Predict the 3D structure of the following.
Amino acid sequence: MQELTAVVAEKIEAGCWSVSVRAEVSERWRMPDESGISLRCELMNLASGLAKEYGGVFLRSFVFMVDDTGSSGPLQVTCYPHTVHTMTGTLALAHTADRSWANFLVLDLARTPSAASLAIRTNDCLVEQRIENCEPGAIVELARTLKIRHCIIRCANVNDRLEEELCAEILRREGVDIVLCDSSAHFAGARRFAQALEDDDGVFGISGEDAIRLNTARPISYEIRRTTRPAFDLEEKALVNVLGERPVLFVLDHVISMLYGEDIHRYASRHLHSYGEVVVMGRETDKTWPQVERICETASAAGLGRHGILVAVGGGITLDLAGTAASLFRRGIGYLRVPTTLVGLVDVAVGIKHGINAFGRKNILGSFYPPLASVSDYSFLRTLPVAEIACGFAEIIKVALVRDEKLLEQIEQYGVQLIQSHFQAPPAAAREIALRAELLMMEELAHNLFESSLARLVDFGHTFSPAIETATGYRITHGESVALDSLLSTAIAANKGICERDLVHRLFNLLRHLQLPVWDREMPSAETLCVAIQDARRHRAGVLNLVVPSAAGAAVFLQDIGREDIQRGLDTMYELASKALLPVHHPRREPRYASACV
């Protein structure tokens, strides 16, 4: 054991973070001796000593793989701040298995004598039950009794390979899926186990490098709570249940302040610990730094502490302003959203992104900052202009066209009625469409909240739209620009044979019926939209990821489109609008050529 300690210590001092040592030990070390000390205990002592001697902040976890047949491991011992794990070779093999497997068999024919284990997965943790009788007949009977469907078999040489193939053939007759692996597979399993440890919170050395890494996981959880009454009805408790007695500062859209200010003040004085309010302008041209600064200044003057909460009540612009301010004030305070527009309800309030316009660019500044919750009250839409309801539908159509044809069909069936009724009737359709849109958005965002992957289906309708908005001085609203972008992207897909042309006509007719634009007199030229392509590439780490539908409810990503593709898409939109006898003005057409927009 002293020699083994010396070998491992030498490896560590040489900068090897992953050390494999094969030690020949006598049979007596496999069983407890007269002092009750087994090989496992000796190895634990070795690991503990090495952890204390060489750990520091570098080695937080040691994994020792042993062939101790008494193991049901992995056995874990903590010697602060280090944790030592030991596991058998068969359990290491089990860690190479697909994580969807529940109970399965592991046969290790490479060791003498052969070993077998039943691997059991509980709460994503693997433990093993060693099997005493490794004869093929006994293994097959066990597989039949426990209805095992998977087995991993490892061998070391030709003779073992024959035995391995014999066992595999017998087990296959019982419908067991066989995975054959070589003699080094148990090291791969041990490394997989060690990597899982390294992905946990802590500080770790980086193998082969003079560096250390800190890992920490930040759990993200927030809710969208629907009200049963108007949000600021004195009997409605949705806000109270989230905010409790924490101090709050309201950020109100100026129109909301005029329409609902008295109700908000009455509710706050009855139920909440209010520090006052700040009223902001809810126009796209006002989504700028001075308004964010004014929110922070008001919060500071009011004495809002680190445990305080900004409560934003308004449309998407107000939510963006308040979210950005909340992420900055005191390096981050609580934030609750009460969206009052359809865009806010089905799009902005679902994710964690907040942005403001600067330097002539849309949303160039901002943050990823999750709220405490969003409180959804669709009764606010009763006072929302019909044009704003239509803009919200553009975001619902966006997710429906690339994710859910059934939702698209519901919009086609009930969309006009819902716009005319300010999204109030028919009530069952309103609830189902809104809920489905929210759910689809959350499903798309859930595994990519911080956009570690920049290939996002929810970016459909959001590649050309920023250029359309800014080119018109934001006369075309966000929802309207998303509608135009969606139609252009679909036309590009149809012209390239990615989707049927009928889908372009279907989307064109739907947008028209919902009072959304299908063309505009200031529609940017193909050259201008090529610049938008370049901006999209910069925003998406050099990759275009243009989302286009391949069918209703499905989509693909395009990585390379040319100016010609954009021009043909514009031509398709123009022709459809002309045939529909809509007032149109085609942007000046520059000479066509087929180069890519790079």
Notes: Residues 15-37, 55-60, 68-82, 587-598 have pLDDT under 50 and may be disordered. Residues 562 and 597 are 5 Å apart (CA to CA). The two ends are 64 Å apart (CA to CA). The chain has four domains: 2-90+191-214, 96-183, 223-380, 439-445+452-579.
